[in-house]
Amino acid sequence: MDLMKGILDNMSSKKLKGQKLEQVLPYIMIVGGAIGLIASLLLTHDKIKVLQNPGYNPLCNINPILSCGSVMKTEQASLFGMPNTIFGIIAFTALISFGFIMASGAIFKRWLWQVAQVFATVGVLFMHYLFFQGVFRINAICPWCFVTWMVVIPIFWYVTLYNLRTGNIKIGNRDFNKFVQKNHGNILIGWYAIIFLILITRFWYYWSTLL
Question: Using one digit for the tens of pLDDT, what is the confidence trace for 186-196?
């Protein structure tokens, strides 16, 4: 959490005025990708252990709400017959590579940024789909999954802002673009706040027992 807070602080509007987004974006990709990759690998490890031994109790089984084991056994844990964690490992590895190449000073073509935007958008939409399924269908949240979800949001957000700023994509009018560029930090914080508010209210019946 301290690491993510540092990233958010570093991406404040004041700092962006003196530091181009293109200089900060590679490190958002690298750090976010590394966090997502580690979480995906840990979840894959637990998935393999469960397949080998159905009685295995993953370390991420914290309580009835925060539980990897119950989520792993659902159909939502796989896509096209392949565990979601495999897609995560591939995607986050590619993201880290993209970030390092960008940090080295490479300049990507416009079409490549548009492809990156497509993948970032698909990623954030899939993340919200899994969030909805976990909260309202499965009634449990996988902790490692949640970690990956939380890093997907800023990655999508700042890739989008960069593409809007550089003209790689066009969404809305000039006033809209100016607003999101100026208030990017507040929008991101609000995004997180809504997610945590949903988690608190949806599972209050359990959280209240811990008070």
Answer: 999 999 999 99
